[in-house]
């Protein structure tokens, strides 16, 4: 009984510390996350230890976000099925590489690909629920993004866009508030766009569902193509790239109708296309020599850069072997 009470007291003290020191908590989490990169190559089984440190730091950050949101938020958090699915998908997002490395170390490549397939099946089925039951388009990556703690703790986490306009009662016309207008240099002089349910009637839901469905199914299709053609084949590489391009083409038809957060997620995915340069077989055939040449040249021209470029050159192939699959990008 004493242990239970003392454990509860420790949890209460920790929660009070997080609530009262959100800035310090963020700094500690940042140090923990970055330390995972410096562990690489320094100790035995460093990839596993590095991913363990990274996973724990991110899960701790997710937990602390919950504490801060519950303490400073205006609304009581309801952990519905939708929220629970997002939590599980976020935890898997942070831990899947660590799990795959542990399984590979214990049971080899066969065990790794079995676990990878099971994880992707769970992620895909969960995404189906978010997509078709809750109309979540697009699904964020990770589903629960990091909390902007400064805005929350300073009381600025209210929906800025909803406070930036009002609707005339008789005409229904949307008018921007004077204090809600952006700086002159940033104005585009376009009609005010209202997000979420106010503009959902203007979005062609069918195309958006198809676009997100392609994105959700891509990991499983890619896994199957790797199984058939091999991880070094151009066919599996082109199939994954083709699915991404097809999804983006469908999204591009309706970008103007999407909210800012939706467009931001699509832009993040498009930026992820750069990682195809680091995937096999592109990396083995072309990118590896170019990257090593650029890093070597940079470290020779700028002396201090050798401390950064040296470890990158040393572990580039090793990291590429761990992170080469598209669905974990």
Terminal-residue CA separation: 46 Å
Uncertain residue segments: 158-162, 195-200
Main structural class: mainly alpha
Q: Please, how many helices?
A: 10
Reading the helices and strands in chain order gives: HHHHHEEHHHHH
Radius of gyration: 23 Å
Beta-strand fraction estimate: under 5%
**Fraction in helix:** 55-70%
Average pLDDT across residues?
A: 82
* Principal-axes shape call: globular
Strand arrangement, largest sheet? Answer: 1-2
Q: Main sheet, how many strands, which sense, barrel?
A: 2 strands, antiparallel
Oligomer category: single chain
Record field, number of beta strands: 2
Describe the structure in your own words.
This protein is mainly α and 329 residues long. 66% of the residues lie in helices and 2% in strands. It contains ten helices and two strands. It has helices at 2-20, 22-39, 46-72, 81-133, 149-153, 205-229, 234-252, 260-271, 282-301, 306-323; strands at 165-167, 174-176. It has a two-stranded antiparallel sheet with strand order 1-2.
Entry keywords:
329 residues, mainly alpha, 10 helices, 2 strands, 2% strand, globular
Write the layout of secondary structure elements.
Blueprint: H1 2-20, H2 22-39, H3 46-72, H4 81-133, H5 149-153, E1 165-167, E2 174-176, H6 205-229, H7 234-252, H8 260-271, H9 282-301, H10 306-323
Antiparallel strand pairs: 1-2
Describe the structure concisely for a colleague.
With 329 residues, the protein is mainly alpha-helical. It is 66% helix and 2% strand.
